[in-house]
Amino acid sequence: MKRFFSLCCVAVAAAMMLSCQSEHKGVKGVKHVVMIGLDGLAGNTVEAANMPTLKMMMAEGAWTLQARSILPSSSACNWASMYMGVGPEMHGYNTWGSRTPDFPSIELGENGIFPTMMTVLRRHNPEYNLCAFYEWPVIGDLIDNKAVTFHKNVPMGESKSVDIVNAYTAYLKEHKPDFAMCIFDSPDVEGHGQGWGSETYMSRLEVMDAYIAQIIEATKEAGMYDETLFMVVSDHGGIGTGHGSTSMSEMEAPLVFYGAGVKKGHQIQSSVVRYDTAPTIAYIFGAKTPDVWRGRPIVEAFE
User: Fold this and answer.
1) Which of 96, 177, 176 has its CA nearest to residue 142?
2) Which among 8, 49, 217, 303 is placed 20 to 30 Å from 189, CA to CA?
3) Could you tell me which residues are beta bridge partners of residue 131?
4) Considering the chain, what percentage of its residues have pLDDT values greater than 90?
């Protein structure tokens, strides 16, 4: 009997050891994640665009130009899916400008909103510095703003995004946040104004690329570059002067990883949907994901 008991204890201990060994601790070498969002950046416009910084990130990182939107291929519902790890049928944000659910979320977190990546990161480490800067005010209603350390709406205005870049990079340098998010309202504005792929739209991509370069440079000046993983994300593409339907021009958008812990020059082969973003961020930090999430981490992007 004693021998049987001893064998059981050994088996339990071995199982516990294996469990601990298999528990994901986060992507090695990453202390900071910087997410840059370009609203309306269509996957089929990147190849022809003059975006040397983004293309450098792709050449030296992991990427896909075919990350697929949920339906409809509109803004708020796709940003919500990106942050919440599920589609509209579960989080309830189902229209272009939803600031509250169009029908009840299937579950609410501790802050009265469907659990977002900010909710998860705050649960994972209450001491994290989590920040969000955004030009479109709706974004502030989708992130679980009670979970963040700091968030600010900086409208595009006459500065054409100079103001948000300056505010965001100043925060990076001073606070060195663990997770930082900057979401631009371009090139969606130019797409609606002159059309996706128009001269105005493509010219704006060049400007946005320069802003990405400024943000990367700010992490270098802050001394956090070597431990930072950068993400460039988008919610949807477009066709003509609109979006929201089911063409691939509207539904496919880039997702690019670059920096610490990322595979070099790797085109992502697995299928990627907008709601895979939040679980991927949780994976990078080694955070536990809510059972209600349906997305999965894009593990092939990391070393």
Assistant:
1) 96
2) 217
3) 150, 180
4) 92
Mean pLDDT, range 129-152, rounded to an integer: 98
Strand pairing of 130-134 and 150-153?
A: parallel
In CATH, what number is assigned to the domain containing residue 61? 3.40.720.10
Number of other CB atoms surrounding residue 28 within 10 Å: 9
- How many folded domains does the chain comprise? 1
Neighbouring C-beta atoms of residue 266, cutoff 10 Å: 18
State the residue range of the domain holding 122: 30-301
Which residue in this structure is represented by tokens 């990883």? 257
DSSP 3-state of 63 = strand
Q: Give residue 23's pLDDT band: very low, low, confident or very high (50, 70, 90).
A: confident
Q: 17 lies in a domain? A: no
Nearest-angstrom CA–CA distance, 258 and 3: 54
* Neighbour-count burial of 201, counting CB atoms closer than 10 A to its CB (0-12 exposed, 13-18 middle, 19+ buried): buried
- What would the pLDDT profile of 51-96 be if each residue is shown by its tens digit? 999 999 999 999 999 999 999 999 999 999 999 999 999 999 999 9
Residue 28, C-beta contacts closer than 8 angstroms, at least 6 positions apart: 261, 303
* Residue 20 located in a structural domain: no
Tokens in use for 266? Answer: 């790797």
3-state secondary structure string across 217-254 = HHHHHCCCHHHEEEEEECCCCCECCECCCCCHHHHEEE
Is residue 165 within 8 A of residue 103, CB to CB? The reply is no
3-class DSSP state for residue 110?
coil
Q: How confident is the model at residue 289 (pLDDT cuts 50, 70, 90)?
A: very high
